[in-house]
Amino acid sequence: MPFPDIDPIAFQFSVFGFTLALRWYALAYIVGIIAGWRVAAMVTRRDALWGGPSPITPKHLEDFVTWAILGIILGGRLGYVLFYQPGYFLSNPADILRVWDGGMSFHGGFIGMGVAIVAFAMRSGIPILSLADIIGLVAPIGLLLGRVANFVNAELWGRPTDMPWGVAFPGARAQTCPDFWPLAPGEPCLRHPSQLYEAGLEGIVLFGALLLAVWGFKALRRPGLVTGMFFIGYGLARTFVEFFRQGDAQYVSVGNPFGQVIRFGDSAWAGLSMGQILSLPMIALGIAFVLWSRRNA
C-alpha cells in the first residue's frame, strides 16, 4: 500500500518573521509526558492500589517531570551516540548537539530515566522502586505515541515483505530492496510497518498488561514488580519486532542487508540487531526485579 501523505510537521506559525514549527515527533514527546504524568497522578491518589497510603504524591510527580524530560532527552541522545554511531560522533563531536537531525535511542533514554528516578527519589526521600513502578506503568503511553510518530516520519521502517499490509515508504533507502528480493520492473519495495507493530506491542499490549497487574492483582504492593514486568515486556516486544525491522543504516551492507550486528551463518535472516542485543539485558534485569519483589513481598 502507498505511504499516507502526512506532513511530519503538525502545525507551524510565524512570529515577527520567524517560523516556528512543531513536528509530530516532538508532539508525541509532549503529549506522552503529560498523559503519563496525569495517569500516574491518578494512581497515586488510589491508596487501595498500594495497600495503604501511597508513598508517591502528585506533588512528587509534578516535581519529577523536569527530571524525566532531562533524563529522556540526554539519555536518549547519548545512548544513540554511544550505541549506534560512536565513530562518527567521535570525529564530529559538535553534531552531538544536533538533536533536530534525529537520532535518539530508547535504551539510552531508559538509562537516563533510571538515573533521574534514583537521583530524584534519593533527593526527595521517597522509595526508589515505588517511583520506578509508577513510571514503568505509564511509560508505554509515550512508547505508543513515539512509535506512531516514527511511522508518520517514515523512519525506522521494517524489512521487505509481500504481506498485503506492506507499505511503500518514501526515500531511496526505503525503496532499495536487497538483490535477492524479487521485484518486477517499476514495482515498489514494500516494507513491514514495524513502527506500528512496536506501537501495538510496546504501547497498547504492554500498557494493558501493566494496568491489569496494578488494578487486578495489586502489583504496586510489591515494590519492583511493575518495573520488572515493564523491563521484561518491553524487552520481549522489542526483540520480537526487530525480526521485522530494518537494521540501522551504519550496519547495512551488501552482505548484511538487514543490518544485523551479530550474524549466525551466511543467511541474511539469521542474526541479532543492536536493538535485540540491548534488549537482552533489560529482560534479565526485569526477571531479577520480579524475583526480588517476590522474595521481599
TrEMBL record:
Regions annotated as coiled coil: none
Compartments, as annotated in UniProt: Cell membrane
EC number, UniProt record: 2.5.1.145
Gene Ontology molecular function: any one: phosphatidylglycerol-prolipoprotein diacylglyceryl transferase activity
Enzyme class: transferase
InterPro entries documented for this protein: Lgt (IPR001640)
Binding annotation for a 1,2-diacyl-sn-glycero-3-phospho-(1'-sn-glycerol): 147
This protein's GO CC annotations: plasma membrane
GO term, biological process aspect, one: lipoprotein biosynthetic process
Keywords noted in UniProt: Cell membrane, Lipoprotein, Membrane, Transferase, Transmembrane, Transmembrane helix
Topology term for the membrane: Multi-pass membrane protein
Source taxon at top rank: Bacteria
Pathway(s) per entry: Protein modification; lipoprotein biosynthesis (diacylglyceryl transfer)
Family: Belongs to the Lgt family.
Protein purpose: Catalyzes the transfer of the diacylglyceryl group from phosphatidylglycerol to the sulfhydryl group of the N-terminal cysteine of a prolipoprotein, the first step in the formation of mature lipoproteins.
Name of the protein: Phosphatidylglycerol--prolipoprotein diacylglyceryl transferase
Source organism per UniProt: Pontivivens nitratireducens
